[in-house]
Design brief:
By secondary structure, the chain is α/β, with parallel strands linked by helices. Helices cover 43% and strands 22% of the residues. The protein has helices at 13-22, 30-40, 47-60, 65-75, 89-96, 110-120, 129-138, 150-155, 167-183, 190-202, 237-240, 264-275, 292-301, 316-325; strands at 2-7, 26-29, 81-86, 101-107, 159-162, 213-218, 221-227, 244-248, 254-258, 283-288, 305-312, 328-337. It has a five-stranded parallel sheet with strand order 2-3-1-4-5, with helices on both faces. Strands 7-6-10-11-12 form a five-stranded mixed sheet, sandwiched between helices. Strands 8-9 form a two-stranded antiparallel sheet. Helix 13 (292-301) links the parallel strand 10 and strand 11 (305-312). 36% of the residues are buried.
Length: 342
C-alpha cells in the first residue's frame, strides 16, 4: 500500500506521516529529495529555492519525475510507504495511474496553520504572515501541471481532513482513513491492467522456452497484440522442437535462444503494419526488457514508452538504445530476471 500526502502549508502533513509511521509505513519525502538536490548545487535551503528546484526538475524531465523516483523506492521496499508531500497535478496523476495508491489531503484555517508553522521554528518557516499567505498563493494558482497547485491536488484526493482540532482528532481521522483503505479492494492501475492482458496474450505462444505476450496501447486503448511464435506458414516449436543458438553478451554471460520464433513485440508491430494501425506515440507492454532487435523496431515504429514486467539481465544494449532515442523504459518489478538455458 502506498499513500500520498498533499495539503496546504502548515496543515499537518508531517503529523499525518508520523501517525502512519507508527503503523509501520516507510517515509519518502519530496522535501528531503529536493533538499538533497539543492545541496548538490550548493544552493541555500529555503522555501523559494525548494519551489524553484522542484519546478526545474519537473520541467527538465516530466511532471511526475520527483514522485516517480520516490514511488519506485516505496514499491521496492518491504513496508507500506507514505510519500510526502505532493504539490503538482502532474505528480498526482502519475501516482494515481500506478495502482494501489491513495491520496490524503489535509487543510486547516490559514491562521491556525501560520501559528503551527511558527512553532516549528525551522529555517524555512521563519517568515511573516504576509509572506506565508503570499507563498501559499503562489503554490495554489498555477495551471501548469509541472508546477505547484495545492488546491487542485486537494480536489483530486481520495480522502480529505480538516485539521482544525487537536492531535487526538487528527489521529482519529487518520485511523478511520487507514481502516477504510485496508478494507478496499485494490483497483489495478492502467499499467497493471494492460500487463495482465499481455500475460493472457502470452498463453497463445507456441514456443515453450519463452512464452511471452505483448500489448500496444494508446490513450488507454489496445491497438494490437502479439505473442511468441514462428512466422506464418512455418512449423511451430511446439510441433517440431526448438532451433537453438548460443549468444555471448558484452558482460561475458551466455544465453541460449530459439531462433525459429518471432518475438511478441515484433509480431505486434507486424500486426499494426498489416492492419494499417498507427502506433506512433504508443506504449508497449511486454514481459521483459526487449531484445536489441525489438528495441530498434520499437524506436523506428514511433513507440514512445516501454513498460516491462521485469528487467532482463542480458539487454543492457536495449536500455542504452532507448535512452539515446528518448524512449521511456519503465520496469514494474525491478528484480532482474536471469535465464540460463543450457
Amino acid at each position: 500500500m502506498i499513500i500520498g500526502i498533499t495539503g496546504t502549508l502548515g496543515a499537518g502533513k508531517g503529523t499525518v506521516v508520523e501517525f502512519l509511521k507508527q503503523k509501520g509505513f516507510a517515509h519518502f519525502s519530496v522535501r528531503d529529495f529536493l533538499t538533497q538536490e539543492l545541496e548538490k548545487r550548493n544552493l541555500l535551503v529555503n522555501r523559494d529555492n525548494l519551489l524553484f528546484i522542484a519546478n526545474k526538475l519537473r520541467e527538465e524531465n516530466s511532471p511526475g519525475y520527483i514522485v516517480e523516483r520516490l514511488y519506485e523506492k516505496a514499491r521496492n521496499g518491504t513496508k507500506d510507504g507514505v510519500i510526502e508531500s505532493l504539490r503538482s497535478v502532474g505528480e498526482v496523476e502519475v501516482l494515481k495511474n500506478k495502482g494501489a495508491f491513495h491520496l490524503i489531503a489535509i487543510d486547516a484555517d490559514i491562521k491556525k496553520r501560520y501559528e503551527r508553522v511558527k512553532q516549528r521554528k525551522s529555517s524555512t518557516d521563519n517568515i511573516t504572515f504576509e509572506k506565508f499567505a503570499e507563498d501559499e498563493k503562489i503554490e495554489t494558482t498555477s495551471e501548469d501541471p509541472t508546477k505547484s497547485n495545492l488546491l487542485k491536488c486537494i480536489e483530486l484526493a481520495d480522502f480529505r481532513i480538516e485539521n482544525n482540532g487537536d492531535l487526538n482528532d487528527l489521529k482519529n481521522e487518520v485511523d478511520k482513513i487507514y481502516a477504510e483503505i485496508k478494507n478496499r479492494s485494490p483497483r489495478p492501475s492502467w499499467d497493471e491492467y494492460f500487463m495482465e492482458i499481455a500475460k493472457t496474450v502470452a498463453l497463445r505462444a507456441t514456443c515453450n522456452r519463452g512464452k511471452s505476450g505483448c500489448v500496444i496501447t494508446k490513450d488507454k486503448r489496445i491497438l494490437v497484440t502479439g505473442y511468441v511464435g514462428s512466422p506464418t506458414g512455418i512449423l511451430h516449436c511446439d510441433e517440431v522442437g526448438h532451433q537453438m543458438k548460443t549468444m555471448v553478451h558484452e558482460d561475458g554471460t551466455k544465453t541460449q535462444h530459439c531462433v525459429r520464433t518471432t518475438h511478441a513485440e515484433q509480431n505486434a508491430i507486424c500486426q499494426a503494419a498489416k492492419l494499417g494501425v498507427s502506433i506512433d506515440g504508443a506504449t508497449v507492454y511486454c514481459k521483459m526488457t526487449p531484445c536489441s532487435t525489438c528495441a530498434k523496431l520499437i524506436i523506428n515504429s514511433g513507440i514512445k514508452r516501454v513498460v516491462a514486467e521485469k528487467r532482463y539481465h542480458a539487454e543492457k544494449e536495449s536500455e542504452e538504445l532507448f535512452n539515446k532515442a528518448g524512449i521511456k523504459l519503465e520496469i514494474l518489478d525491478e528484480r532482474v530476471e536471469i535465464y540460463d538455458y543450457q
